[in-house]
Every structure is written in C-alpha cells, then in structure tokens.
Amino acid sequence: MPKASTALPASYEAALEELEQLIGRIESGQMPLEQMLVGYERGAQLLAFCRSRLEAVENQIKVLDEGTLKPWTQE
C-alpha cells in the first residue's frame, strides 16, 4: 500500500491547494481503494495543518486587538 506524504506544506495556501486537488481526485471515483485510504490520511493531515495555522492567526489577532489595534472606521 502506498504511504501518505508526511511532509508539511510550505504554507496555508499550499496546504489548501493540495487538499482541494486531493478531494477532487477522491470525488472523481477513479482512485483505487488503497489510494483512497492514503488520500484520506493525507487529507486529515492537511486539514489539521490548516486548522493550526488558522488558530495561530486568530490568536495573533486577539493579542493585537487587546494591545494596539483600534476599531477601524471608514472615513
């Protein structure tokens, strides 16, 4: 059975692009069952990576909001 890649993507955008491509291949119904399992495992890894990046950004925004950022008003 093929092994899933364990390399982390270079960025959130790269992970999202890979995840979208992977979903497209899985949904096409053209992947053998063993490859679908590997794809599912990789998809779970990519999803966890994306979630961790989003949480890091949200935490950074919270820190900035509590510190120096002021509400934006359109002039």
Structural overview:
This protein has helices at 12-27, 33-66. It is mainly alpha-helical. It has one domain (12-66): Helix Hairpins. The longest helix has 34 residues, at 33-66. The radius of gyration is 18 Å and the shape is elongated. The termini are far apart. The mean pLDDT is 84.
CATH class: Mainly Alpha
Radius of gyration, rounded? 18 Å
Roughly how much helix do the residues carry, as a percent range? 55-70%
Euclidean distance between termini CA atoms: 60 Å
Question: What CATH architecture do you see?
Answer: Orthogonal Bundle
Helix count equals: 2
Q: Report the major sheet.
A: none
What is the element string, with H for helices and E for strands? HH
Beta content: under 5%
Strand segment tally: 0
Mean pLDDT, as a whole number? 84
Task: Give the overall silhouette.
Answer: elongated
Give the count of structural domains: 1
Low-confidence stretches: none
CATH names the topology as: Helix Hairpins
**What structural class do the secondary elements suggest?**
mainly alpha
What is the CATH homology-level superfamily?
Exonuclease VII, small subunit
Which helices and strands occur, and which strands form pairs?
Blueprint: H1 12-27, H2 33-66
Helix pairs in contact: 1-2
